[in-house]
Amino acid sequence: MAFDIDMIKKVYATIVERVDKAREITGKPLTLSEKILYSHLWDGTATKAFVRGKDYVDFAPDRIACQDATAQMALLQFMQAGKTKVAVPTTVHCDHLIQAKVGATSDLQAAMNNSSEVFNFLESVSNKYGIGFWKPGAGIIHQVVLENYAFPGGMMIGTDSHTVNAGGLGMVAIGVGGADAVDVMAGMPWELKFPKLIGVKLTGKISGWTAPKDVILKVAGIVSAKGGTGAIVEYFGPGAIGLSCTGKGTICNMGAEIGATTSTFGYDESMERYLRATDRSDVADAANEVKEYLTGDAAVYANPEQYFDQVIEINLSELTPLLNGPFTPDLSTTVGSAMTKKAQENDWPMQVEWGLIGSCTNSSYEDLSRASSIAQQALDKGLKMKSELGINPGSEQVRYTAERDGILQVFEKLDAKIFTNACGPCIGQWARYSDPKNAPKNSIVHSFNRNFAKRADGNPNTHAFVASPEITAAIAISGRLDFNPITDKLINENGEEVMFDEPTGWELPPKGFEVKDNGFLAPEEDGSHVQITVNPDSERLELLTPFTPIGNEINGAKLLIKAFGKCTTDHISMAGPWLRFRGHLDNISNNCLIGAVNAYNMKTNFVKSQLDGEYDAVPKTARAYKAAGIYTIVVGDHNYGEGSSREHAAMEPRHLGVAAVLVKSFARIHETNLKKQGMLGLTFATETDYNLILEDDTFNFLDLNEFAPGKPLTIEAVHADGSKDIIVANHTYNQSQIEWYNEGSALNLIKKENGA
Ligand code: SF4
């Protein structure tokens, strides 16, 4: 059995007392989100009410899930924590490193050939430390989590932004960086700013061509790509009850596209049906016993404006199918004539080249069955495909069942390519072109979540539009971006006009789910004997060496780069081709800060070395300083390190000898990541002091031996002409974070505390 019923029962055993106490302390009825948050406090039962959007709170998540690209560095770090097992149930899923090219069998084999070293590493580390391992081809992390691990009222974190998908089964599930996951694996609390709450009241009933996907496409259109930032989106109302559990998952999944911390739905019969269908009747039974604690209080939903920070109402009966894009998932257009107009105005290619159905967003049995009902009509009505079609089932269980029930065969009869149960085209792992940069302008429609330029096929000229699986199928068959299956006719092979009927499908397989090998490898009870071997010549994996403490004497440090303007985690540690090196700190450090703009020449990756006065790449310059035993500092502008939570953006500079990052302001997660890696993350007490920093400066930290919470540090900047400026630098280190600094990293401290 993959899931842990005892852990779930433990959560339910405390939820009543903790929620009742939280209701008493806050003096009001509670939303579902608050119930889950307050019942997962690290310190147990609440003793105070937290201020939304302000208070930082320590939580104790129930589970962790990692995907293969992010798990590499997370596990490499965990191996340094000196633990014999992970502290909370954890799984690793191999789904990102599999390319979609020819079709499932050969693509999977190619991935095994190309990335066996990484897969073997993840498998053996999982086995050693008690982590469940899902093999390549087992499925996409979030579909597998929904089928096996998600449970109403639970809290999980995952090293992937679409971890939020598990909200479809009533969880608070949040995407985090590897460093956060490592903390929880090692038995430490996980800190989160207590989120704001957005309530979405669903009324009416979804029907016809409208799908759950259209709910989130509509929400994205209303609130925009940043509208959910710092908030949990909680769906409720009579319309929610009519949605399937996997449909709810789709809606929560794309909460990431509005920047929401996560999204969730209250426990209802659709979730119970899904739990029972996926062989988890014991979870459903346990949930039923505490079900009023697994949804928001009735008083909240009766008067949502009083309890949520923002309320949106959507009448599902009036909702029509939408097509969002191109290049951003919040640009919403109703299918049909509205699209004709917009496409003409914006010169979007009307001819659709590909339809892609799948990804973690829309690859459930229900999704495939509804899309296949459209594909079957094309066969029955003599329609020929006008574009190509690709299908990525979400899991082996979905694939096996869909094949058993003849669903995949319908697509195959239309010459669709059935790709591996993996991310494939959704993460750019789609071998569509040999030279994507020079590929032609074109339109594609897919049922995924993200449609940024180049995301699917690397072609900046591909206009990708997001839709439901059934609309994707219909548009792909018609070949036209502005096709409206509700009103438009198509001409079949006999020259006759035909129309599609409404899609039909099954929420759950009528004959139940079935699978031969779901691809799960349970870890050994005692994995202590498992040897982890990493080839020292590997270019993709490198065991980590603990960072040496920087210490209280930083004198003679040199300026590595003064970054001008926006410096996101992408500028600090680029993605794209560098994904390949996510498990090799030294190799990936060759992308360190290569996207940051040098304030002295406005060029990227071109900085002056004070060792020889020459200009060169940032990583090369940093390595030269490190080899000479000289620490460096990085200076930056506002919101330094915004973007993703990837820990590489902190580990790389640390690895290359950067002792301090001094900026006008930080993106908070990056600031914490710097602290965790045992370096100094500081802000100018006087912002304009940024202008005092000159290209040939040398820095002396005058009072680092008095490093203490709330006490600013004093830095002497010595200019080339011998003149000096004193810079006062603020910091937000608390005492335990100062311990991280003193020990060289948070992991070093954990290891020390474990006596390892
Ligand atoms: Fe991410 Fe796409 Fe994979 Fe989902 S299918 S986990 S969005 S890459």
Assign an overall shape. globular
CATH superfamily of the largest domain: Aconitase, domain 3
Gap from first CA to last CA: 32 Å
CATH architectural type of the largest domain: 2-Layer Sandwich
The largest beta-sheet arranges its strands as 22-26-27-28-31-30-29
CATH topology value of the largest domain: Aconitase, domain 3
Structural class: alpha/beta
- Kindly estimate the percentage of residues that lie in beta strands according to DSSP: 15-25%
Estimated radius of gyration: 26 Å
> Which ions and ligands are bound to the chains?
iron/sulfur cluster
CATH class of the largest domain: Alpha Beta
Number of discrete domains: 3
- The number of distinct helices, counting runs of at least 4 residues, comes to 25
Question: How would you characterize the largest beta sheet?
Answer: 7 strands, mixed, barrel
Low-confidence stretches: none
User: Into which percent range does the helicity of residues fall?
Assistant: 25-40%
